[in-house]
Structure formats: C-alpha cells, structure tokens
Amino acid sequence: MRFMRQLGVILLVSAAGEMLRGLLPFPIPAGIYGFAIMFVCLCTGVIKLDHVEDAGDGLVDVMQVLLIPACVEVMSFWDELRSVLPVLIAASVVSTLAVLAATGKVSDIVIDAEERLKR
Amino acid sequence: MNELLRNSEFIGAALTILSFEAASLIRRRFNNPLLNPFLISVIIIIAALKLMGLDYDSYYASARHISFLVTPATVCLAIPLYRQLAVLKSNLPAVLAGIGVGVLINAAAIVVFAKVFSLGHSEFVSLLPKSITTPIGMALSGEYGGTQSMTVVAILVTGITGNVAGEQLLKLVRVRRAVSRGLAMGASSHAIGTAKAVEMGDTEGAMSGLAIAVTGVLTVAVMPLAAQLA
Q1: Pick from A74, A93, A109: which residue ends a domain?
Q2: Residues A68, A49 share a domain
Q3: Residues A66 and A18 in one domain
Q4: Is A36 on the interface with B (CB under 8 A)?
Q5: CB spacing of B59 vs A72 below 8 angstroms
Q6: b/e burial code for range B128-146 (CB count within 10 A of at least 16 → b)
Q7: Radius of gyration of chain B from its Cα atoms, rounded to whole angstroms
Q8: What one-character DSSP code corresponds to residue B91?
Q9: Confidence (pTM)
Q10: With an 8 Å Cβ cutoff, are B81 and A39 in contact?
C-alpha cells in the first residue's frame, strides 16, 4: 500500500502541474510545473521524502524505458532526418564540447573568486 | 499483422520493455558507452517492426500506456534535486554562473549551426534542448513545434559525446575543481554524462546530478527567447 499511496501523491502533483499548464499561457510542459510544485512542497515540508521517495526513485529509474515509444517515431521521420543527420551530429558534438569547457571554466573562476573574497 | 498490434494493449508494451532488457544485457556484456541501451532498444524495435512490415502508428497504439508515466517521472526528478539541496546551497554562485553560461553557449552554438547550414525553424527548435534530460527536452521540443524524435537523437549524441570525451577535455582545458568538473558533465551531457561523472568521483557525481535539474530549469527559462533566434 505504501507504494500506491506514494504513487497517489505523485499523480496528484502531476495533475496539479497539468492544471497549471492549462491555466497559464506559457509553453511550459506539465511535467515542469509538477517538478516545481514537488520541489517547493519538499522544501517547505508540505510533502515529506517518505511520502514519495520509493515510488519516485522507481519512476526515475525506469524513465528511459518510458521514453522509448515516443522515440521509435523516428522511423516515420527517417527520410527527413537522414538529410540533416550530419549537421545534427556536428552541432551536437561541437556544442557539447563548448558547454563542457565553458561551464567548467566559469565554475572554477567563480569558486576561486569566492575563496579570495573570504580571505 | 498491423491490425493485431493496433488492437493489442500489451504487445507493443512488452516489446518495448523486453527490448530495453536485451539492450541492457548487450551493454553489460561489452561495457562500451557507445552501446547506449536506449539507443540499442530503439534500433531493435524499429528493426523488428520493419521486418514484420508493421508501421509506427500500430506500434504506438499498443505501447502508448508506457508513455503515461513520463510526466509523473519528470515530476519525481525534484526528489534527487531536493536530496542535494545542501550541496546546491553551498555552491550556488558556481552552479548558477557555470550552468547559466553553459545554457547560453549551447543556444549560441545551435544558432550558429542553424544559420550556417540554413536549418528550418522546426529543426532548429528540435536541437535547442539537446543538453537536457530527455523527458524535459522532448516536451520542450513539442511545445515549440520541433520534432520530438529528432530531439532525442540530438540528446543521445550529446550524452555520448560528453561521456566519451568529457573527462579528457576537462583535463585539456585545465578545469581543476571536482565541483566544476561535475557541473560541466551534467550541464553538457545530462544523465549519460552523469554516469561518467559518478566514475570520476563522489563530488563530480553529486554535482553532475544536480546540474541535470538546474540545466533543465534554466533551459525552460531561456527557450521563449532562444526559439526566436533562427
């Protein structure tokens, strides 16, 4: 029952996210609203970790499997995709390397500056 | 055959889950990051459908119940972030500055590629959310008129790039701190990069996991503006 109760809480938060998605005019997915609601509820103690964590960790664990059906759709777009595939791969690889270097460097600089300020 | 699949509530779902299990076995057997279980299972399913002459709509009709839990699972990403709250608070300036710059650099790089190779708007917005966790990236791509499956391909290429090349590149550009290395892995290549960060060290793993959530949220925030750039 514990698992079901936790799933119930998670579905309730998902439903609240869905309602916000309907009420607010922004192109933000329901899951993101739900994520924000869940985070705020955990931080304020409205929801405690043991109200959600077993079912929640389980869902996060199987996330990849849940996403497979939507990705198989690539077979319907294959002809379109094939023509942009080289650009897609090049753009993904180059931007990933740029982000790696930039995020790492900026974080190093900020932590160095913080330590200098503390001294 | 199409009819049988279309009218089944379980064939597609079973095929999906068992393909992922088979792909995970292959991964464990060879232990090579290029053998991503998600990628392999999608290839197995497409090959099986093609071999039997089945189409995507019939498969989806029979596998769609699996997708039902995507939104609740996205909601639950708040749980690991909450567990890292103390780490987030004590590194807040580095987290926000590092990931903020990363999100902007990513958008800038995609804009440049879109302009140089004159990509259409739909392809451009499909690529924009490529550095974030798959459920958020797919949902964003859908909201802005992209092709979700194209976004997933970009997300996979991104993750594998970070996993394979991240550690070396960070060494090359002399990123010294464990906190920074973890942030860079998570902000650039989400969960697949985080799998590598966990091997690099405890701090790297924790920061990388935290970076997944923060990068997702910051990307949601810049999308309305970034989507208009090409």
Answers
A1: A74
A2: yes
A3: yes
A4: yes
A5: yes
A6: bbbbbbbbbbbbbbbbbeb
A7: 19
A8: T
A9: 0.89
A10: yes
- How does pLDDT run across A15-57, given as a tens digit for each residue? 999 999 999 998 889 999 999 999 999 999 999 999 999 999 9
Residues of A in contact with B224 (CB under 8 A): 26-27
Residue A43 sits in which domain range? 1-74
Whether residue B162 has pLDDT greater than 80:
yes
Q: Are residues A47 and A87 in the same domain?
A: no
From chain A, pick out residues whose CB is under 8 angstroms from the CB of B139: 29-32
Which tokens belong to A76? 């319907």
ipTM of the complex: 0.92
Q: How far is A119 from chain B (nearest CA, A)?
A: 17
Do A6 and A51 lie in one domain? The reply is: yes
Instruction: Round to whole Å and give the CA distance between B181 and A103.
Output: 8
Domain check: are A26 and A44 in the same one?
A: yes
* Residue B16 near residue B45 (C-beta atoms within 8 A): yes
Domain ranges of chain B: 2-68, 78-226
A15 touches chain B (CB under 8 A): no
From A66's Cα to the closest Cα of chain B, the distance in A is: 5
How many whole angstroms separate alpha carbon A67 and alpha carbon B66?
8
Contacts with A3 (C-beta within 8 Å, 6 or more apart), sequence order: A54, A55, A58
Are A71 and B38 a contacting pair at CB < 8 A?
yes
If contacts are CB pairs under 8 Å, which of residues 66-105 in chain B contact chain A? 66-67, 69-83, 85, 91, 93-95, 97-99, 101-102, 105
Q: Which residues contact B107 (CB under 8 A, 6 or more apart)?
A: B128, B222, B226, B229
Please check whether residues A64 and A108 belong to one and the same domain. no
Residues A68 and A90 in one domain: no
Summarised one tens digit per residue, pLDDT across range B47-59 is 999 999 999 999 9
**Chain A residues touching B81 at Cβ < 8 A:** 39
Look at chain A and report how many structural domains it folds into: 2
Are B56 and A53 inside 8 Å of each other by CB? no
Tokens of B189: 């290549």
